[in-house]
Amino acid sequence: MSTTRQKRVIPGTTIFDGDQARKGYALNKMCFSFNSADNRAEFLKDKEGYCAKFHLTPEQTEAVLSLNVLKMIAAGGNAYFLAKLGGIFGLDMQDIGAQQTGMTKEAFKAKLVEAGKN
Amino acid sequence: MAKIVGGINVTHVPYIGRAIANNLQQDEYWKPFFDGFPPIHDWLAKVKPDVAVVIYNDHGLNFFLDKMPTFSVGAAPEYQNADEGWGIPTLPPYKGDLDLSWHMIESLIEAEFDITTCQEMLVDHAFTLPLELLWPNQKQCPMRTVPVCVNTVQFPLPTAARCFNFGRAIGKAIESWESDARVVVIGTGGLSHQLDGQRAGFINKEFDLMFMEKLVNDPLWVTRYSVPDLVELTGTQGVELLNWLTMRGTLPGDVSLIHSNYHIPISNTAAGLMAMAAE
User: Fold this and answer.
1) Residue among A21, A37, A116 minimizing CB distance to B154
2) Structural domains of chain A, with CATH
3) ipTM of this model?
4) Class of the CATH-defined domain B3-278
5) Mind telling me how many Å the CA of B128 is from chain A's nearest CA?
């Protein structure tokens, strides 16, 4: 099921709309739980078990275990919630940006600096 | 009646919290960002506000996706910051202003903005860091505060025109408050940035600079763009500029620009800063 409204297509961009929210609810709820240090520790002890506790789909679980951000977004993950998962592994926004764009972190940072010139 | 002394818009990247905690303000990376603030500190010292109304978006600290109000207003005696999961320091609590909160709530509902009231409300980096930047090196922020949260997380988001009109209603509420308080309004977030997807790292300097210029004397300029237009032009998180526009809506009459700063990048973000005085 999805909304019948025509969607705006923006290359390389997923708008977190109702379809994404429906698909990603369990994944985002798990990530919301990472506001608690105890939950972060529990996740690290048994990642797969923690995903199961939140009823993640096999697609979501695989994306989480492989820390693949694009797959997590495809599975309905919201950037702000996924950032809490990234934080557990000490990933900053340049790590996450580099992974999604297939660039090295240095190249990604250079791209940001370049955007400030002219 | 209360007086709005002016408004400030400022970016709220979480990473700023770590820079402040580690005293990196004069570090090469951070200097162009932090050097934007002293002229605004001077202006604040001159206009002496008592209360800060802070318009921001929550990032999954107070609101999960189970309940997502489009507009919400804090009505708590005190607002706590808490662990957001990414390792930035938790800051001391912020004083509320219950009289202004409830006056705003009543006035906004009367103006047909059916906001959600929050008698308990955790405030995240989007609320705390701008206050840290504007009133640095204090044990506790010297302002009484009223948090106003705008949904920029779960689409559909309110339109730019709706946000501007919401801001106008907030401004009218403040100005009809029977108090001699001096109020500063702060809008946080932006400017252009995108954290997610193959377009991560997208920044649009040309648009940001135009937006900042227009915000002073022609704030309705940006209402020609739909929310999806704004995502395309400013990135999935660049839409936080709606908080800036809401702030601008609160300022009565003509405004004058006190100071502005714009620097790329802070983390993945084009960091903007503007202070405007109300006439």
Assistant:
1) A21
2) 18-91 (1.10.700.10)
3) 0.95
4) alpha beta
5) 17
